[in-house]
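sorry to bug you again but im stuck and you know this stuff better than me. what follows is a protein written twice so to speak, once as letters and once as structure tokens for the fold. id like you to explain what the token line says about the fold, in plain words if possible. anything you notice is useful, everything is just below.
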Amino acid sequence: MCRHLAYLGPSVSPAKPVLHAPHSLTVQSYAPKDMRGGGTVNADGFGVGWFAEDGYPTRYRRSGPIWTDAALDRLLQPVRAGAFLAAVRSATVGMPVSESACAPFADDDWLFSHNGVVLGWPESVAGIAADVPVVDLLRLDAPTDSALLWALLRHALRGGADPVAAVMGLVRAVAAAAPGSRLNVLLVGRTVLVATAWSHALSVRRHGDGVLVASEPCDDEPGWHPVAEGGLVVARVGENSRATTYEIESMVEPLGERSRV
């Protein structure tokens, strides 16, 4: 389990939602309001990732609690990014507590986080994992369900899949193979953000001309909207870097009507 948040839009600092907002990600790490059956304290590591000036992701991950890291505030204050993702972790029993097990997972184009658990892992998803090249499985960041989900999604993206379709396909496939799994995922690229609400809480609001999504509202600003169970949030940077728009739809067949904000 974890708490996570992500932003897409004009460049801003991640410091406020991660560290300084009234119910920032740091506060959520030890005082979450809605864990839906998960652990209460997210003390098994954290990570922050953003797309740097060169256009590629930069990550800062640690295996300890976010509230103990004295360097994080100084690190984030000067950062300005048009896309970022941050997460705090409560490790599932039996899975390692290590820096490499912490989100965000990343490659040159994407940042990824999973809030939840795959029931029956790894046996329940062994059939799905067979579609991923063996060398990718051998290079998993960590022997965890979240790292496997990232490998599955990355394989689809590298094969040319649309990111929205890839996320929906991943969640549906894992939910079918491992019923009852909690599959809130975040995928953030340079111009698109995809987030799911699958057996866990998720909220979204406008953040200036950008869009902010989070496991729980991280501030008292108006405009937060809870995403219904089975919901999918898709945010995209407008043409010529104009205001980011987002849509909320349902991943439950048949697809619901899209709501653009």
